[in-house]
Amino acid sequence: xxxxxxxxxxxxxxxxxxxxxxxxxxxxxxxxxxxxxxxxxxxxxxxxxxxxxxxxxxxxxxxxxxxxxxxxxxxxxxxxxxxxxxxxxxxxxxxxxxxxxxxxxxxxxxxxxxxxxxxxxxxxxxxxxxxxxxxxxxxxxxxxxxxxxxxxxxx
Length: 155
Fold this sequence. Notes:
Layout: E1 7-12, E2 31-36, E3 47-56, E4 65-70, H1 73-83, E5 90-93, H2 118-128, H3 143-149
Parallel strand pairs: 1-2, 1-4, 3-4, 3-5
């Protein structure tokens, strides 16, 4: 039995599962996947939406579930607007001093090290909420590089 609500992961149906950093955690007891569009989400009153705005996530959020949107940044923005009443679902952000290991080649991105892969973001959120992170990165190809780049943060 979990001591906190499940993490709800809303993944766009066009997300390439072969490239998806979250694919290795499908089936984890603490995570539940939904496919957008067409998904029906449960009641969200005890969940926070992981996003770019809002207060930084912390241990104070430990009794809440996490909602993570998984898709390209453009798709994620559309999904957020369509699925969530942000007056009812609080948004929490991550610290800005975390660096991705996921190889990104976006021409409009001034710093490709910023902007985390979904599994990296989930790992950071769990770590800040003092949840068990064991096994979370086990299937992530860039696990060691991610942890090395952020070793000062994860002390």
